[in-house]
Amino acid sequence: MVTQLQKVNRRKRISFLSSIISISMVLLMLGLFGLIYIQSKQLNKLIKENIVMSVFLNEDISKTEIDFNIESIKKIKDVKDVKFISKEEAANELSKEYGQDVVELAGYNPLPSSIEITLKQESVNEKSIQELKKVLLTFYKVSEVKYNEIISKNVVNNLGSFGFILIGLAIIFVIISLVLINSNIRLNLFTKRFSIKSMQLVGATHWFIIKPLVIRSFLNGLYGGILSIIILILILYLIPNYFPQIEVLYNTNQFIILFITLIFTGILVSMVSSYISTNKYLKSKIEDLY
After folding, report:
1. How far lies 21's CA from each of 9, 26, 93, 98, 231, in Å?
2. For residues 212 and 244, what is the distance between their CA atoms, to the nearest angstrom?
3. Which tens digit of pLDDT belongs to each residue from 189-199?
4. CATH fold of the domain at 52-147
């Protein structure tokens, strides 16, 4: 036969579990957006660092001058990577692309040697690219510097707009998450308002009443955060099975920061909401509780 005490303990466990699940679902929503934001930043970086500038060289350039140019370009702060493409390599690449031997078709190799440059993410903007282009044109026997201006402008403009949209959505998601966690805690404590007031009336101190509720809120936030992280890790593990290419956008360090932030957010909001709500009921008159 189930005793009254067992019923009370069962209700407490159900309440504890429901609070954890509610908090974890809110944190999961926030975490999912965090994953999207992190991977969009990685995609932004990947796209920008794949914009290539080609430095075309004169026919009469010597190997010493080529090596000097390459070493000088590597020292430029905006440059991430430098690759030399010989006339032969350029012809082979073009032949593969068109399915015909370019040299045989033209009777000679019409392609110049070149140096391909990829820029650092923060340097992919029209001003930096134009300044770098002017500098490169002063190097030994450089005939021309080319890059796809239309693509670079569109990438910078579109990614910039997308970044602002994501930041705006991130702020909205954070506010919604905080409000939902706070509402859940307040609702949970609302059902205990008479117990809280009764303890005060029989002489329990302010801290004696608040302490166990704040500790319980700490545990709710901690377990809710851990549960949301487990689900997020499971999602990260399963997604590559369906979209293998997405793994290139994974950033373990940023994921760890996100997971720590989720736990911290769950704990902090739970504890603060619990303290404020409990304090409110302690200061309320009995008739205000109805």
Report:
1. 18, 9, 56, 58, 12
2. 47
3. 666 666 666 66
4. Alpha-Beta Plaits (3.30.70)
